[in-house]
Write a structure and sequence with these properties.
There is one protein chain. By secondary structure, this protein is mostly helical. It has one domain. The chain is built from five helices and no strands. The protein is globular and about 35 Å long.
C-alpha cells in the first residue's frame, strides 16, 4: 500500500490513537463499540481537522486497525468511564499529548502500525 506524503507514519499513529480513544468514548457512553460507519466518519473528521490526505484504502486500513486494537488498549489502560477519559482531551476532541497516558496509547498505536 503506498502512503501519501501528508499521511505519513506520524499522522497515521495520531489518527489511530484518536480513533482508539474514540472507541473508548463510545464504550463508556453506550456500552458498545462504534459502528463501522461512525468510525469511518470519525476518521474523516480527524483527517479534515488535521489537513491529512490519504486514499480510501489507507483510511480504511487504519480504521479497521482501530477497531481491532481498541479492546486490547482499553484493557491495558482501564479507561472505562467518561470521567476517566475527560483528562485525555484539551479543547474539543483534541487529544492532550502532554498527558503520559495519551502518549502511551499513541506509542501502542505506533507499535501496531509498525507490525503491518
Amino acid at each position: 500500500m503506498s502512503m501519501s506524503l501528508s499521511f505519513d507514519e506520524e499522522a497515521r499513529a495520531e489518527m489511530l490513537c484518536h480513533l482508539v480513544v474514540g472507541e473508548f468514548v463510545a464504550m463508556a457512553r453506550t456500552g458498545d463499540w462504534l459502528k463501522t460507519a461512525h468510525l469511518v466518519e470519525l476518521a474523516r473528521i480527524w483527517m479534515d481537522a488535521n489537513g491529512a490526505g490519504s486514499d480510501w484504502q489507507e483510511r480504511i486500513a487504519v480504521t479497521r486497525m482501530a477497531a481491532d486494537l481498541a479492546p486490547d488498549v482499553l484493557a491495558a489502560s482501564g479507561l472505562m468511564t467518561e470521567k476517566a477519559l475527560t483528562p485525555l482531551f484539551t479543547d474539543g476532541w483534541r487529544l492532550d499529548y502532554r498527558m503520559p497516558l495519551v502518549c502511551e496509547i499513541r506509542d501502542m498505536c505506533m507499535a501496531r502500525l509498525r507490525r503491518v
